[in-house]
Amino acid sequence: MKTRHLTSVIVCLVGTLATSPAWSGCRDALTTAHRVGAGEFCVLGFCLYKAELWSPHTPVSADTPFALVLKYERSVSGERMVSTGIDEMQRLAPRPIANDTLNAWREDMQRAFGDVSRGDELCGVYLPGRGARFYTNGTLKADVPDMAFARAFFGIWLDPNTRAPSLRRHLLGESP
């Protein structure tokens, strides 16, 4: 009985993701991907979003394509996302990032991210050797052909020095 119930839950979850607007856009870039891991980003008990990492390869590395899907539980302004993202990319950088580069990255992120509301889904696709693509609710918003940007952006979640080490472990499938 428990096995049948668990199987039903898994089928339901897979079906939900397969029809998710963000994943349907990302799926075009990663046709053979499987879910590597999932978790939530919460601060002081308030969860901002649920995250899932998808890739055709495990373990995920800088040489493998992957998609990071974020389903928002709260509203966030695009301006806040861009500002926080730039701050984190600078914090994680091994050396200072040139102002010209930061300004270009800020413009790329402004194209990619508008305001989000509860239920909105954002998907970023990391494409080795090509850069990154960003989708909002299944619609392509930005294609950024800059590998340095792509590595720095996804490092916000996947760098060993991320501010969310528990979420990182869950995304990489390292935690139960």
UniProtKB/TrEMBL annotation:
Keywords of this entry: Signal
Signal peptide range in chain numbering: 1-24
Residue ranges constituting the Chalcone isomerase domain according to the UniProt record: 62-173
Keyword Signal: yes
InterPro entries found in the cross-reference section: Chalcone_isomerase (IPR016087)
Signal as UniProt keyword: yes
Domain of life (superkingdom): Bacteria
UniProt name for this protein: Chalcone isomerase domain-containing protein
Provenance organism: Pandoraea cepalis
